[in-house]
Amino acid sequence: SSGINAEYGGTSEEEDWNFFWTSVQTTRCIFNLDSGYRLSDDQLINHFPNHYELTRKDLLVKNIKRYRKELEKENSPLTEKDENCRYMHLDFIPVTYILPADYNIFVEEFRKNPTSTWIMKPNAKARGIGIFLINKLSQLKKWSRDSRQMGHNPKDTYVISKYIDNPHLIGGKKYDLRLYVLVTSYRPLKAYIYQLGFCRFCTVKYNSAVSELDNMFVHLTNVSIQKHGDDYNDKHGGKWTVHNLQMYMQHTNGKEVTDRLFDEINWIIVHSLKAVQGVMASDKHCFECYGYDVIIDDNLKPWLIEVNASPSLTSTTAADRIMKYTLVDDVLKIICPNGEIPDPRWNKVPNKDGMGHFDLLIDEELAAQDQHENKSRTVSGRLPRTRPQQQWK
User: Fold this and answer.
1) What is the pTM of this model?
2) pLDDT tens digit string along 153-174?
3) Strands 44-45 and 19-20, how do they pair?
4) Of the candidates 168, 165, 167, 175, which has an alpha carbon nearest to the alpha carbon of residue 253?
5) Ranges of the chain whose pLDDT falls below 70
6) Strands, E assignment, 71-220
7) How far apart are CA 290 and CA 52, in angstroms?
8) Are the C-beta atoms of residues 158 and 98 closer than 8 Å to each other?
9) To bridge 229 with a disulfide, which of 94, 104, 203, 268 should be the other Cys (CB 3.0-4.6 Å)?
C-alpha cells in the first residue's frame, strides 16, 4: 500500500531493509542454511521458519494430538474427558485422519457411523481448491483410482475430517469466521487477536441432503469460490464483521451466551498455539499474522478448521480494503512501534495505545511476572468461565 510504503520507507528486496512482508517461499529461502543469509539485529520478517507446524493441515492435527498426549502424561486437568471419552476442554478440531497413512483407521471409524459425511482437503492447497465431500467409501476409492489415472503425485497427502453437518445458520446460510492472530514470540508465547475479523457466508442456503454434497456454493465459504455464484453480492462480498455477528448473537442468544462463545474461540486459539510452541523455531527476527478459520455449530460450539500462514490481503469490497489496510498498519504499530527501526531484542509488549485494533490474547512473560508479584492483572481480556483455572500455565 502506498500510504504504508511512504510512512515506513518502502524498498526493494535487493536493497538494505528492516522489515520484510514476504511469501512463505521467500522466508524458506532466507532461513535455508545453504543461502548463507543471516538476518541482522535491525531486520524483521513476517513468518517463522517452520510456520507450517501450525498452518499445514496435517501437521496442525498431529501437533494438537501430541499436545493432548503430553498434557495427559502430566495429569493436567485440561485432559478431563466426558462419559463418551471426548475431551471436555481440548475437543476443538473435528475428528481427522491423514491419508493415505491413516486409511485403515479411517475406514474403521467410518463403519462405526456409515451415514456420516466427511470432507477431504489437500494439505498443500488453499482457497478451497481440491476440496470435496463424501458419504460413501466407494467415493473415496473412486477418487483414489481417478487420481492415479490422472497422474497425481502419490506422495500428495490429504486430511479427511468429520464434516460439521450441523453448522449454525444465519438467514438459512452457512458461514465461518476469519480471525487474525498476531504472534510476536512463541517462547515466551505472546499473541494478539484482531477486533476487525469477519464472517464469510455461502451464497446458497444450507442443505445437508446427499443431492447437494457436490454443491460447493452450499458447503464452502471461501470467497474465491462464492464469488463465482449467481447470487454473489459484490457490494458486501457476502461478509459480516465479527462485531455484527456479536450483536446478532447477543440479540438472539443473550450477552452471557455470546461472551462464552467468544471466550471459547479465544481458548481454541491459545491452545492451538501452545500445541506448536515446543516445535516452532521462535526466531527473534520473526512475527506472524495468521488467518484462523472457525466454524460455529448449532450448539454454539466453535471448531477450528484451519490456520493460514498468508491470509489473503486482497480485497473484494471497499470495506474489505479499508479493513486489510488497517490490519497491516496495526501489525506494524506493534512490530515497529512509532515507525522506528525494528529491534528484535525488544520485549514486544506494546503500550495499549500502540496496539491499534489488536487485543492482547496471551502473554506468558506478563503472566509469569504477575504470578511472581502475586497480582491479579488480567492477561487475556476475558477468561473462559468453563475452564480449569490452570489454563494459561
Assistant:
1) 0.86
2) 555 788 899 999 899 999 998 8
3) parallel
4) 168
5) 1-15, 124-129, 146-155, 210-219, 221-237, 344-348, 372-393
6) 96-99, 118-122, 132-134, 158-162, 169-170, 173-186, 189-194, 198-201
7) 11
8) yes
9) 203
